[in-house]
Design goal:
It is a single chain. The chain has 208 residues and is of the alpha/beta class. The chain has one domain: Rossmann fold (3-Layer(aba) Sandwich). It is built from 6 helices and 10 strands. Strands 6-7-8-3-9-10 form a 6-stranded mixed beta sheet, sandwiched between helices. The longest helix has 18 residues. This is ATP-binding cassette domain-containing protein. Keywords: ATP-binding, Nucleotide-binding, Transport.
Length: 208
């Protein structure tokens, strides 16, 4: 369960988030849509603990979120893979327990990348790299996954395939997913609830 209460954030005199309140149930996929510059990405970073809000609070599983943690995974438009590490080693980053190549390959198989674990990122296409990012979520099983337009730079065919894999991920992990996108069709297909945001992350309406 995520509770966002009286959240406000500003950069200097510019107020980016104004009195934002929202409850999100465990296992729910919620999508934020709104015009560029309305504060969606900033809101996502505050929820993840990457930005400390000017006021208000984010509560995840009864704990106030104050900093990033392994139970809250962020996926960006760029894959953020380390080029000098293999795919297996990239997936291991941040994982506290030892995990074998065989275990990782079983998860890579879920995103159609079996036997790619010993490759380096430069040997994979853009769509494959984003699938590795999804595989991280399969392996780490975070309570919350935050996604800032992670499929936006992909071609249509690859994007549709990853959307299906994201839905499968949600069913397997029961993670709560918060997604930012400009693609209305994507929002409708993936979401349990769509939240339309205006200036200052003002909630204009919600659709279920």
């Amino acid at each position: 369960m995520i509770k966002i209460q009286q959240l406000q954030h500003h950069f200097g005199s510019h107020k980016v988030i104004h009195n934002f309140n929202l409850d999100i149930s465990k296992g729910e996929i919620v999508t934020f849509i709104g015009k560029s510059g309305c504060g969606k990405s900033t809101l996502l970073n505050v929820i993840g603990g990457f930005i400390h809000p000017s006021s208000g609070r984010v509560i995840i599983d009864n704990e106030i979120k104050q900093q990033p943690s392994p139970d809250c995974l962020m996926l960006f438009q760029h894959h953020n893979l380390l080029p000098w590490k293999t795919i297996n080693d990239n997936i291991r980053i941040g994982f506290q327990q030892k995990i074998s190549d065989e275990e990782i390959n079983a998860q890579l198989k879920l995103v159609d990348l079996e036997d790619r674990g010993k490759h380096f990122p430069e040997q994979l296409s853009g769509g494959m790299k984003q699938r590795v990012a999804l595989c991280r979520a399969h392996v780490h099983k975070p309570n919350v996954i935050l996604m800032d337009e992670p499929l936006g730079a992909l071609d249509a065919f690859t994007r549709y395939k990853l959307q299906d894999q994201l839905v499968q991920l949600k069913h397997k992990t029961q993670s709560t997913i918060i997604l930012v996108t400009h693609d209305i069709d994507e929002a409708i297909y993936l979401s349990d609830r769509i939240v339309l945001l205006g200036e200052g992350c003002n909630i204009i309406s919600q659709y279920e």
